[in-house]
Amino acid sequence: MSDLISNLTLKIRDFIKFKNSLGIEYKTGLYYLKQLDKYNYEHGNYDDLKKISLKTAPCSMPTNPLQETGAGYPP
Fold it and tell me: Which end of the chain is more exposed for a tag (fewer CB within 10 A), N or C?
């Protein structure tokens, strides 16, 4: 697990240790967690992952894209 590089490294290592303590090898999961770790490092290097609500997330799209473009409406 030495190739973990982001601020999530300690949390990922603790999670893997927990899974291993339950007798789960977690090889496939570790592969994907390494990909997440790399993505996190390249896109902000956050130390926590939180879900955000679409209501609170900044968004530049209109609430109904069809209304803005007129797509789907008869002429």
Answer: C
- Report angle CA 52, 54, 56 to the nearest 5 degrees: 70
Longest dimension (CA), the chain: 64
pTM of structure = 0.65
Give the pLDDT of the chain (75 residues) as one tens digit per residue: 569 999 999 999 999 999 999 999 999 999 999 999 999 999 999 998 887 666 666 655 555 555 555 555 555
Q: Could you tell me which of 13, 45, 6 has the C-alpha nearest to residue 29?
A: 13
The two tokens of residue 27 are 């090889």
Tokens of 47: 């130390």
Element (H, E) at 74: none
